[in-house]
Amino acid sequence: MTVGTLGPVSTERLATNELRAQLGRRIDNAHFKGEHVIVDKNGEPRAVLVPYDWWQDKQDQASAGLTPP
């Protein structure tokens, strides 16, 4: 696990096996605390777990032409 920053948001990196063991807690942390998690498989980033509201806001911004998709 490593920790970095994604703008003002703290971001952790977890291997898939670590995330699998912690998935329920990580989903709650994303929802309630706004945490972001980069999911690595074989040492490569494959996915990102982010709060739904954060993701929806980015989708709305992209569809309004405010940010690139």
From TrEMBL:
Domain of life here? Answer: Bacteria
Coiled-coil regions, chain positions: none
Leader sequence range is none
Q: Which family does it belong to?
A: Belongs to the phD/YefM antitoxin family.
Question: Any idea what job this protein has?
Answer: Antitoxin component of a type II toxin-antitoxin (TA) system.
Annotated protein name in UniProt: Antitoxin
Q: Tell me what organism the protein belongs to.
A: Actinomadura livida
